[in-house]
Specification:
166 residues, Ferritin, 77% helix, single chain, mainly alpha
């Protein structure tokens, strides 16, 4: 059986994952607005992945006899200075999520909750990819700098290829 404290913290993580989806969808809409459909697609897929992360945690909480409680989500930003800023914010956000997952792992260890510790290992591994992918894109955007529309459009075209895989 899962502790009340662990249930509360996992519920907070569910809401963080759902906010992540909300944030990435907002970024996607903005990228569509500025006519970068490939980057918009990349963010949309990212948002869908975040929903599956929330669902994965929620299913675990329920399997452990816990009650899933959803809270209101904060309003995400809706305008950005540039695609560069969007990917900077994405990397920053993923580092925040990684820290949150690490705190859950520490709590599971403190409580000797081996089942939750084992479940969280998937997220620990996933966060490596979650940070790496936008960091790689950010590095490319920094490399091309301002005013190189051809390179920006090439990156946009490449990001259009990403597909959602549940």
């Amino acid at each position: 059986m899962i502790s009340k404290k662990m249930t509360e913290e996992l519920n907070k993580q569910i809401n963080k994952e759902l906010y992540s989806a909300y944030l990435y969808q907002s970024m996607s809409y903005y990228l569509q607005f500025i006519n970068l459909p490939g980057m918009a697609n990349w963010m949309e897929v990212q948002g869908k992945e975040e929903v599956t992360h929330a669902e994965r945690i929620a299913a675990y909480v329920q399997d452990q006899g816990g009650h899933v409680v959803l809270e209101a989500l904060d309003k995400p930003p809706s305008t950005f200075k540039s695609p560069l800023e969007i990917f900077e914010k994405s990397v920053e956000h993923e580092k925040f999520i990684t820290a949150s997952i690490n705190a859950l792992v520490a709590l599971a260890q403190k409580e000797a909750d081996n089942a939750t510790f084992a479940m969280l290992q998937w997220f620990v591994t996933e966060q490596v990819e979650e940070e790496k992918n936008p960091t790689d894109i950010l590095a490319k955007l920094k490399m091309i700098g301002e005013g190189h529309m051809g390179a920006l459009l090439y990156i946009d075209k490449e990001l259009k290829k990403r597909e959602f895989k549940a």
